[in-house]
Known about the structure:
By secondary structure, the protein is of the alpha/beta class.
Amino acid sequence: MNTLEQTKVSILGLGYIGLPTAAVLAESGYQVNGVDINTDVVMSVNLGAVHFFEPDLAELVTKGVQAGRLTASNDAKEADVHIICVPTPLITDGTTHPRSDISHVLAAAHSIAKVLKDGDLVILESTSPVGTTSRVKSVLQNELPHLNFCVAYCPERVLPGKILVELTENNRIVGGSSLRCAEAAAEFYRSFVVGEVRKTDDRTAEMCKLTENAYRDVNIAFANELSLLAESAGVDVWNLIGLANLHPRVNVLRPGIGVGGHCIAVDPWFLAEADADIAKLIITARKVNDSRPITIVENIQPILSKKLVANAGSLRVCCFGLAFKPDIDDLRESPAVEIVKALERTGVDICVVEPHISHSSSFDLCTIEEALENMDFGLVLVAHSYFRSHEGIKDAIEAGRLVDLTGLYSA
Length: 411
């Protein structure tokens, strides 16, 4: 049996999960090769560089490359463990509800089939509809009916900004296509995960990941709807939630501008697509959260109209934050981006403050100081720590020049 240092791991997909996973495994002593169809990503990793920001990731990638334990390529290579971390986007083509696209997962399975050998372990980490692991197994079995290998599903449970810590410290659910496969996958994860590794079947593990994010989505939708009711009643929603949460069995989440990222904003649809007639609450929550950015723009439109008249038709609006959550540079499915684009369509002059990105081809970026000096009106869209610690922002909010949509100082 191979030692940890002799075990080769192949990571298919070097994005927000794949690259940190590759770096952590290399740090643990595995021989890791990352696979990505993007040649620029492959080149950057082989130079010890990263193509997105995550705390401490650049240093860990550099260390792995310099130690000779981390490489990257465009094509799958022979390995003992193959981990699929490719995207599973939503398809929105005019149908009643969005549905999942697992074409990247199946393409990864076909590429693994070219190098798979007896005794290998194939793990799907990409968030997927229930039954996707079985489809991966079928692809491999159809192409390699003579081989004996294991297939399992193990969803990631990490928070952007804390990925490297949570990859090892969080509990993991390992779902095998058989008990033998679950045990093989659990043994692999226990080699680098400090948290508990719990075994189950693949379908339960798939649904567990979707359940976790749908649960969050439903509770966020309640908070967002509550904020509208509070506003209508003339009640401070932040004070209301603080008082309600004094109840020992109540924990109302904080309302916001919507839900972004590639987990909570996407995964509930994977559950709902199985049976939309059953998933009524899940679908309603998705609609509440998806409509939030447009609702916000509609609610502030009267303010903008009055200021446009007062300013003789010219109005500079500055938006603070673009990322889908605080203290990261990830703009995927960001409701802040939706709000900025909607405001641009109203004809006002927009500038954006986003301290976590240095350039943008889509938006006019400015510094906090430039925004505070030149804006006629402003919105805080993301509760970055940098904003909370800036006295100028606090002063602008108190003066009524800047509207805080995040409860920045109510925490």
